[in-house]
Design a protein that fits this description.
This protein is mainly β. The protein has two domains: about 90 residues, Beta-grasp domain (Ubiquitin-like (UB roll)); about 150 residues, Beta Barrel (Elongation Factor Tu (Ef-tu), domain 3). The chain has a six-stranded antiparallel sheet with strand order 11-10-13-8-9-12. Strands 2-1-7-3-5 form a five-stranded mixed sheet.
C-alpha cells in the first residue's frame, strides 16, 4: 500500500479562476495537472525551455533539475519554479501564466441550500449556505464566487466570509436599495431555498505570512477578511501577529464583532 504523501496544489490562472489538484511528493506538478485534465503550459517537460515557469505564492517544493536558460538560480530564490520539474513538499499555490480557458478548464458550478438568511444591520445581510458535494469546493481565504440570483439569470459576486475548512459557507451582502439580490434577500429568501454559484475566483487571497499581518476592511469588505482571519486562527503554521482595521459608515453598521 502506498504511503505517499499527497498535497493540494492551487493553480491560479490569469483570468482569476483557481483550480485545485492533488499531487504526490513523487510526482511533478505538471504530471498531476495532466492527470486532472488541466493543460498548464509546457513544452520540453525536461527543465530546458522555461515554458512552464510559474510563480509559487506559497508552499515548499523540490525544484528538480533544470538549466539556466529555463530558470536562473535567482528566479528560483525569488519564488519561481518549473512545474515540469517541481515536486511538492507541502500544499502550494502557483500562478499559472495562461487563462483557465486555454488550459481547457474553468470555474465549477455548485448547488447549495440556504441555512440562514437575514439582516445583520440596516446595511448588511448574512447568507449562509450548505453546499452539495462540499468536499469538491476548495478555495483560498479571500476568494469569491458568482451567485445566480434565484428567479433570474443574473449573477452577483460575493467573497466567502468563512474559512475554507468550515462545513457551511457564508457571505456578507450589502443592502443595495432595489438591488436584485437585495430584493430577493428582503422579500423572498428563506431557509431551505436552493441556489447555484460558480467559482472559486480571484487573486486576492492569503499568502503565507512571514511577517505580522495588517488587515484593512470597510463595510461588507469584511467578508474576505473574516475568511482570512479564520484561516490565520485555525492554522498553527500561520503563527504571526494580526491586526485588523475595520471601518463602517456608522457604528450600527459594524457586524460580526463577536466573531472578530
Ligand atoms: Fe520546458 Fe518545463 S516545460 S522547462
Amino acid at each position: 500500500m502506498s504511503t505517499q504523501t499527497e498535497h493540494k496544489i492551487a493553480l491560479a490562472f490569469e483570468d482569476g479562476i483557481t483550480k485545485f489538484i492533488p499531487c504526490g511528493e513523487d510526482q511533478t506538478v505538471a504530471d498531476a495537472a495532466y492527470q486532472s485534465k488541466i493543460n498548464i503550459p509546457f513544452d520540453c517537460r525536461d527543465g530546458a525551455c522555461g515554458t512552464c515557469k510559474a510563480f509559487c505564492e506559497s508552499g515548499d517544493f523540490d525544484e528538480g533539475d533544470f538549466v539556466d536558460d529555463a530558470m536562473t538560480q535567482d528566479e528560483l530564490d525569488n519564488g519561481f519554479c518549473l512545474p515540469c520539474q517541481a515536486k511538492p513538499r507541502s500544499d502550494m499555490v502557483l500562478q499559472i501564466r495562461t487563462t483557465s480557458v486555454l488550459a481547457k478548464t474553468g470555474p465549477e458550478t455548485f448547488n447549495a441550500t440556504v441555512t440562514k438568511v437575514g439582516p445583520l444591520s440596516e446595511t448588511v445581510f448574512e447568507l449562509e449556505l450548505e453546499v452539495e458535494d462540499r468536499e469538491r469546493l476548495n478555495f483560498l481565504p479571500g476568494q469569491y464566487v458568482n451567485i445566480t440570483v434565484p428567479g433570474s439569470e443574473e449573477t452577483r459576486s460575493y467573497s466567502f466570509a468563512t474559512g475554507p475548512q468550515e462545513d457551511k459557507i457564508a457571505f456578507l451582502i450589502k443592502n443595495t436599495p432595489n438591488g436584485l439580490m437585495t430584493n430577493w434577500l428582503k422579500d423572498v429568501a428563506k431557509v431551505g431555498d436552493k441556489l447555484e454559484f460558480e467559482g472559486p475566483m480571484g487573486s486576492f487571497f492569503l499568502r503565507e505570512p512571514l511577517q505580522p499581518v495588517l488587515l484593512l476592511a470597510g463595510g461588507t469588505g469584511l467578508a474576505p477578511v473574516m475568511s482570512i482571519m479564520e484561516s490565520l486562527a485555525n492554522d498553527e503554521l500561520l503563527d504571526v501577529p494580526v491586526r485588523l482595521i475595520y471601518g463602517a459608515n456608522t457604528s450600527e453598521d459594524l457586524v460580526r464583532l463577536e466573531d472578530i
